[in-house]
Amino acid sequence: MHSLSRKQLLALVLITLVWGINWPVMKIGVTDYPPLTFRMISMWLGLPVLALGLVLTRAPFRIPRTHWRELFWLSLSNMFIWHALMIVAVKSLTSGRAAILGYSMPVFSAVLGALLFGNKLATRAWGGVAAAGLGVLLLLWHEFTQLAGRPLGVVYALISAVAWAMGVQLMRRTTLTVPTLTISFWMTTLTAVVMTVLSVLFEQPQWKAPSPTTWSAIVFNAVMIFGIVQTLWLSLARNLTPVASTLSVMMIPIIGVFSGAWWLGEVLHWQDWAAVVLIVLAIGSVLLPAKMR
Q1: pLDDT tens figures, 209-267
Q2: Contact 140, 152 (CB under 8 A)
Q3: Backbone φ and ψ of 147, nearest 5°
Q4: Would you call 241 helix, strand, or coil by DSSP?
Q5: Residues 6+ apart with CB under 8 A from 45
Q6: Which of 85, 52, 41 lies closest to 185, judged by CA?
């Protein structure tokens, strides 16, 4: 962590805390409100915050036409699938369980990097992949064995994690030369349009005025997640040391699990405890440098 500047360290702490506690915040927001509509409103309200950031930093709004196709694929993998399926998964699962499954992303990213992009994956890392798989199976087993279980929510969360993992690989190889804030603005704009279409198609009969509690969750996501933290992460991810980024990623689901248990009274079963440990071990095995292990 010594290679981080003070500003980077503060940003990393903010990202970890905000993304961690946002899991119970999202659960509160979608408990009695259509999830895709919740996501749509949050994104449209977050766009003015991003636009203000572009103006204050004098970053360009324009992305050259030659990069539009790449921008679409980055948006599809990093945001379209993740935001649509994960918010539906949050509604059907506990916030802690959704966080565990969502942050299996680094493990999928390591596997995709090895299979599709020729990255070297150490033998020990394959043990981490097995640990992650066992953690997911524990959660699936619990959902299938409970009468009120929602195994489809687990599937949605896993598809989201795989899509995001592909997005991370593509983002590392992007040829876009515009600032990260510009990329974030247009990715969020495109995703807001997609969420609007999905909301109209699947949730229009459920539309209603958000309650004050739902509005609080919407505003939190609009300002903190889409307006600030998402761009901070995209900016820092290119410069963070492997140790720093790994510790951040490992802490987010832990904060999500325990904040959900404390705030929402979500009951943690032994499968949840075991899955947290297995996913954290898996993330560490595929991301931490050998000397750190």
Answers
A1: 999 999 999 999 999 999 988 888 777 655 554 445 555 566 788 888 889 989 999 88
A2: no
A3: -60, -30
A4: coil
A5: 218, 219, 222, 223
A6: 52
